[in-house]
Amino acid sequence: MRSVLAIYVLLCARIALAQPAVEPGEPLGKPEKVESKQPQDILYRKVQVRDADLDDVLNGYIPLERDRFNQLLSDIYDSADEDGGMSMTRITSARYRAILRQDVLASGVATWSIRHNGEEPSLLSVKPLAISLSQPQWIGDEESDATLGWKANGTWKLLVSESGELRSGWSTRGNYNRLGDVRFDLALPNAETTTLIIDMAETLVPVLTSGVVSEWQPSEDVQPDGESVDLPIEEGMRRWVIELGATSRSTLLVRSATAQKSSQKVSFITENLRYTISDVGINLDALLTVDVNGDPLDRLELLLGDGLFVRTATLDQQRLAVDTHGDEQRSVDLIFPDLLSGPGNEIRVSAIAPLLANQQFQLPGLTAANVVWRQGQQHVSISDHIQINTLDVLDAVPITPIEPWTESSLVRSYQMNQPSARVLMQLTRKETDLRVLQHSVVRVESDDMYADCRLDLSTSHGKIYDFQVTLQSGWIVDSVEMISGADVESFTVLNGVLSIELDDPITSELPTELAVRCRRAVVNSRFNGSDLRILEP
């Protein structure tokens, strides 16, 4: 009934618009004779629509089959090339063959169908690219070497003069998790369609976070490079076809067929990472939501970014044991007191890393190795005392920032496209103002002068862990002690400069008072006013 009513309203609107306009106050009468016109053709399309989708259809959204949508998209590209004179270079289809040897996708052959419109050569950005390529060649009537190079901005570029097919060797190495599965975080160059054809042992099966996996079926098709789809398969191997579509990133988990049969669904993890960056360093608070399907987990292995150190981990407010792997601490195991099962398990991880100021660095991340990454967000809070020189995000897209969780900070939020999304930045600590108020009591005993100097130290912003003052010539420092505030960790005197390091920082809320005791000899039993200037900032 609702569909009939909507069509009736549209027809009434069309009839109303067809009536001649009447000026206000003009009497109604017979319409003037007008020349008969041939009615225009009315174009319509019959569409089967669910009642729940009727509002969307009336607003202009028409459902399309995938093949029809791809055809329309291709027509749009063609129209843009011809009408706008634009030089568009892109990979229309990409196919990757490989054989899984232990934890390596080896003996790979990549074939790209590249379309180039325009008379002049252009550089095609080959990104993302997390696989190793070797000997790229243009194939056709004659083979020729392709020009593929690395630019200073961190991207690979391919020189393209005309449309054609490119073939290259490729390989990539995965990581074993504690269950014996092999994980590949795939990042392949952007293409309109991407297909992987992988041979692996009969005892293994692939599981994918995004894409369609199917076992290979015999075919007589021939690829553009002349290779048959049905290349020979080694004995004891099975061939799998993975369709990624227009997606260039996915996580591939290769596990045993027995484990997959006992657990038809693998376990997934969702990451919510909050970074707090200040002049002290980087603090990471991670909320990891693990959905366990099938076999329960006794531990969770975390792969850590450079410089990241896990301080604590909790599950339901219960502290977890953290088992480090070797001296490098590039990965840790979170040990569960009871087997973890079911959905919605929230694990909170606190970690720290040093701030590498005045140089480019990658924000250290963490990701789980023995579960499949589903999605994640990064929220980065940067203190006002930190100057942002550069900030580039390679594997995430900006989203609406969340509310700041620390005062005097700027928050940026990102939706991650893959685990451990790369955020590259260069930061500088802003200078802080150290205010020094000095009180000195000097006494003379025999041929020596003794000074008890009190330094009241404060700052209007930032945190100060160390500072230096100039020691006037002839004075020797005997001791530096804390009166109130931060403890003194150490002090040194070198070339007339007194350097002091504190255990806790000087802040606007925590001023510090220090006692510095000095002495010097009195020359010829004389001294003047300049001798009383003992310490100067």
Task: Describe the 3D structure.
There is one protein chain. This protein is mainly beta and 537 residues long. The chain has 4 domains: 47-86; 89-262, Immunoglobulin-like, CATH 2.60.40; 297-429, Immunoglobulin-like, CATH 2.60.40.1730; 435-536, Immunoglobulin-like (Sandwich), CATH 2.60.40. It has helices at 2-18, 54-58, 66-84, 257-262, and strands at residues 89-101, 104-116, 122-126, 132-139, 144-145, 148-150, 156-160, 164-173, 175-176, 182-187, 193-201, 204-208, 212-215, 237-245, 249-256, 268-277, 282-304, 309-315, 318-319, 321-324, 331-353, 360-362, 366-368, 372-383, 386-393, 396-399, 409-416, 423-429, 435-445, 448-458, 464-471, 476-484, 488-494, 497-506, 512-521, 535-536. Strand 1 and strand 2 (104-116) form a beta hairpin.
